[in-house]
Amino acid sequence: MQQRNRELELKLRLLAPDAWQRVCDIPALAALATAPPRDEHLETWYYDTPGQDLRQAGLAYRIRLESGKWAATVKTDEACSG
Fold it and tell me: By three-state DSSP, how is residue 3 classified?
């Protein structure tokens, strides 16, 4: 049986400068943390065909520079993961 990789990503945009600590103090989110929060610079590019074929298929292709290393990722929405 082939093992599937799964990823859970939580994205937050905090508009108030003091909001980050309040978010970190939420018990449910604090329980998920495996390390203290940190600032990280990421460079990310998303690619698709001129006709947006990937998006229409529920896919996203990105490359990201993170910690000095490049990674390519193909992401899918729930409709395509079954």
Answer: coil
> pLDDT digits over 33-56, tens only?
777 767 777 889 999 999 999 999
**Site of tokens 């000095």:** 68
CB-based contact 24:30 (threshold 8 Å): yes
User: Do residues 58 and 80 lie in contact, with contact meaning Cβ atoms separated by under 8 Å?
Assistant: yes
Output Rg (C-alpha) for the chain, integer angstroms: 16
* Nearest to 75, CA basis, from 31, 62, 65: 62
- Closest Cα partner for 76 from 55, 53, 61, 58? 58
- Among all chains, which residue has been given the structure tokens 């298929």? 57
